[in-house]
Amino acid sequence: MSGYNDLIRNAAGIGINQKTVEGSRNNRRAENNQPQTEQGATFGDVLRDRLTEVDSLSFSKHAALRLNSRAISLSDDQLSRVESGIADAGQKGIKDSLVLVDDLALLVNVPSKTVITAMNQNSRNIFTNIDGAVIV
Known about the structure:
The structure is a single chain. By secondary structure, the protein is α/β, with parallel strands linked by helices. The chain is built from 5 helices and 5 strands. A 5-stranded mixed β-sheet has the order 1-4-3-2-5. A hairpin with a 4-residue loop joins strand 3 and strand 4. About 10% of the residues are buried.
C-alpha cells in the first residue's frame, strides 16, 4: 500500500524539494537560450526545413496505397505539373480539387497540398466533394 501512495505522491509532486524544482526550471531556461540543437542545426535551419516540408506535395496513406495497388507512378515532370496546378487552384480559392495529369486523376486537398486518392483515367469514374478541377 505504501508503494501505491509513493506513486501518487510522486505524480502529484508532493515531497519534492522546492530548490530542485527551481533548479530544473533554471536549467530549462538555460537550455532554451541555446541557439543550436544537439545536432548543430540552428532554430532557423529547422524552421526553414519544416516550412519547406509544409510547402511540398504529400500523399495520404490512402493515396499511397492506391498508387501502389494500381501500379501508378508519377514522373518528376508530372509531380512538378501537379504542384503547379495545386498552386493555381489555391489562388482561385479551390479547397478540394480534381487534378488531371496525363492519364492520371488525383483528388487533392489544396490547403494542405495532400493527394487524397489517385486513379487511372481509363475507366469510368464519378468524382464528388470537389469544388474545382485543374488539367495540367
